[in-house]
Every structure is written in structure tokens, then in C-alpha cells.
Design goal:
This protein has 3 domains: 137 residues, no CATH class; 87 residues, Phosphorylase Kinase, domain 1 (2-Layer Sandwich), CATH 3.30.200; 234 residues, Orthogonal Bundle (Transferase(Phosphotransferase), domain 1). It is built from 18 helices and 13 strands.
Amino acid sequence: MDKSKSSRHHSSKRHLSASIKSHKRPKSSYKGDETPPLLDLKHISSMDSLMKKRESLKRELKDISKQSLSSSKSKNSENKKYEHRSKQKETKTSYKSKTKQKELKNSKSANKQVASSPANEYGMLDSEDEEHIIELRRKKRKMLIEQLVTRNDSTENLSDNNKKSFDDSNENVQSLIETNKINSTEASNHLTDMFAEDDFKCNDGANKVTQDTDSSTQLIDNWDDADSYYIIKTGDMLDCNKYTIKTLVGQGVFANVVKAQDNKENREVAIKIMRNNDLMYSTGLKEIITLAQLNKADPDNKHHCIKMITHFTHKRHLCLVLESMHMDLRSVIKKYGRNNGLNLKALMSYTRQLILALRLLKKIGVIHADIKPDNILVNEKKNVLKLCDFGSAFKINENEPTPYLVSRFYRAPEVILGIPSSYGVDLWSTACTIYEIATSKILFTGSSNNKMLKCFMDLKGRIPTRLIRKGKFKDQHFDYNNNFLLHKKDEFTGREKYEVISNVTIVRDLNKELKKSFIDMTSNEEQKVFQLKDLLHKMLMLDPGHRLSLTDSIKHPFVQETLQK
């Protein structure tokens, strides 16, 4: 009896353990949250409770599938919104961005199909195998991760392609950030910091300036010509609109001269505009100093040197404002001399005024060094003249021998020989000018310094030997016996040769030349012409030490005695 009971008891235990084994969960390699919680065998009392547990598990899996479906739908709607926005901006993007967007659409459609597959599979949760459910969850998670990675990659590609298009608009950059959910640190790379120092770095290429060196263009500045003269334009305003240019008077080696209107004083002035270079600027400064000394020595303006009113700088040109005169003496000779010179009365007046100007220069210790008709101005009535153009003037103690001092036709013999100059240089030039006023002809017309010495000897005879010996450049014109060497060119070879002239003969008569310019003279006029010849003879002594002094010149009868009718 006991044996039968025990056998029954063992059989029932085997039956129960078999049933439990049949429902026991198979082993799985998944750990953590990826696997559902294991069934607790202690709380299983019967098959009904086991079935209830399985039904509850199915319901939980269905809920999970519904949640995944809703999340996939929301993501699909976001993708549609992004696609709609990208279509609106398609016109602003380049061809490459369009192709990238097409690839992005294709990837999105593929992602939609992949994303819909887990929902479909979760909708078919009729299987009772727990392992199958776990596998579906794993696949679902893996596909979601792949979808997210693909989406991020496409977003970065799109932002790179559209970077140039949206750089200039902060609004477009911000919309791109919102659409693609770029974080704040990435967005700052697209925006321009208006206070960043990098934005204000100098471009090396901007500092390289090229200049047209074509000679046809006006070089350096549009107010200078190729020779650095100021381009005169009628109506130009100078010195803060104080002076208005009216007309160009003339142009010399150092400057050009214009007539201008003084708008403040309501008078006409002459403005000497120096050339724009260092040499002419320094020459202009020296002239300003000389004119200032002359103004101080002659406050009443009675000694016939041009008066300087003021000076200023205009566009790098030094400008000297001088009193206005009507015309230069050369123009007067051409206009009124009629190849015979001016009348004796005008000649006497001009001679006296020129000697007074030389006396003023000697008073301040200055040599003009360029006296000629071009540098002598007369007023509108032609009764007053003024010595001008002191650009070549220098102090008596600043003398340095040079063979090209003074214009050649008015150059004294000591200048050509290289003897230190004194006031006699200006006296010689004045005598040549007086002769030209009287005859309308140039007194000495040598084509070179050597020919000028020959002209001197034709009128005045042989140059004194003691004067030759003092000359620094005597070897260019005289041999060791102090015989004159006339420079000539050989007619056949064209080479320069020298003709030795040991005997000098006077071939010109100053008195006859002066009388030819005065026709039908009275006895008083003949006397005056003779006085003029005597004055010129004494002013044109070859040895500067023997020339007539300025004091004796102003006392000469030709200057002091009036012309009797």
C-alpha cells in the first residue's frame, strides 16, 4: 500500500516538472533592458496563471509597438516639413546643392520604408515566441539608430553646400540652424562677429598701388605737367581763394608767371609759381629772402626793384605774389623800337632807373647775375621800370666762379675767364641792355663763350694779360703766350681746331652803331648820343676794376643832363 502511494507521488512530481520544463524560457545571450524580465517560477501555481502572464506580456508588446508607430509618424512629419522648406530654398542653392537634396530625398524615402517595417512587423504580434519578440525589438532599435545617423549625415552635407548661399543673411542662417537642429556652437561658425579682429586684417594686395607711367598721361598729379610746371587754368583759386588766376604772362626756366586778381584787396597782382622740384623750391626760397631784404632797404619802393607782397605754397608749388607790371622791356623794344630802338628821352629815363636799381642791390650786398631786357618790367604808361627775377641772385661773399653765370649775350668777360665776380658783372649786363634799348640789336652775339670773347675784342681790343692770368678757365681760350685761341670746326673732317690770334684788331665803332639808330638828329641829340657812347664805353671796360662805378654812373652827363630841344 505504501509502495503504491509513493509511486503515485513520484509520478505526479515527474508530471509537474515536465510541464514546468516545457514552459521554461530558453537561454538567451541578451542582457540588460533589451530582454523582458524572466518568469518567476515560485509564483506559478498553475497553468492558468502562466497563460495570464503570457497574455499580459502580449499586451505590453502591443503598447510598445503602438508607441514606436506614433514616434515614427512624428518623425516622418518632421521630414516632410524639412523637405517642404528645402524646396522653397531650392532657387537660392547651387547645382551641387540641388543634387545633394535629391540624394537626401531618396535616402529619406528609403528610411521611411525601413522605418515602416518595424511597425508592420509589430502589428503581426500573433507569434507566441518570446525570443521572436526580443529579436524584433533589437532590430527596431538598430534601424532607428541607422536612421538617425543617416539623417545627421544628410543634414551636415546640406549645411555645407548651402553655407555660401546663406553666409550673407543672418535670417537664412538662423532658419537653417532651426531646421537642421544645429547646436549653438556650430551656428556661431556661420555668423560674422562684427567686433572680431580677424575681420579687419589688412589685405596685402590692397597696399600695392600701381601707377601709370605712360608719358602721355599727366605724371604724379593732374595739376603738374611733365616738366613739373603748374598747369595754368583761368579761374583757378589760390591761397584759400584769395587770388583768382586771370591769364598766363610768361614761362621761364624756374617758374611760370600769371596775372591774378586779389579778391581781398581788389587789385591785380602777379604770381610767380615755381616748378615743383627741390632745386626750384630752394631757388624760390633764396629769391624770397632777397626780395624781403630789398623791401626792407627800400620801404618807399623808389629804387626800381620789384616789390614782393607775400608768398605761399599751393599744391607743393612755392608761389611769390609780386606787384603787377604791364609788360617786359624786350616786348617794349619790339613793339615801339621798330628796329631802331627807343627815343633818347625814354633811353635816358630807363638808364637812370636801372642804375638806381643796381645801387639798391649793392646796398644789400647782392649781385643780380641775370640782368637782361626779359627780366626788366615796365608799367602800363611805360615810364617806370622795375628789375625782377632774382632767382640767380647771390651775396657778394657767396661768389663761386662758374663760366655759365648770367645769360650768354649779357655775360661779362670775367665770368667766362673764371674770375670771382663782383658788382661789375651787373654793370656789364646793364650796359648791354642799354645798347639794346638804343638800337633794338644785341650787342654781343657769340654762339659760345669762346666766340663771346672774340666779340669783346672786336669792339674793345685785346684782353689785358694780367686779367687773363687771373682766370680759372684761361687755358680754354688762351695759349701759354696769352694768345687767343679761336675755336673753329674743320670744313672737311668736322673736327674742332684752334686758330691762334696774336694780333687783335678792333673792327667795330660804337659811336657809328649808335648814330645809325637815330635819324635826322639835332645837334643836342648828337651830343646826347656821344654822351651815351662814352657811358657805355666806360661801363664796358674789359677789366672790371677799371669800369665806371655806380656812383659815377648816376652822375654821368647822359643821366644827369636833360635833353635840350
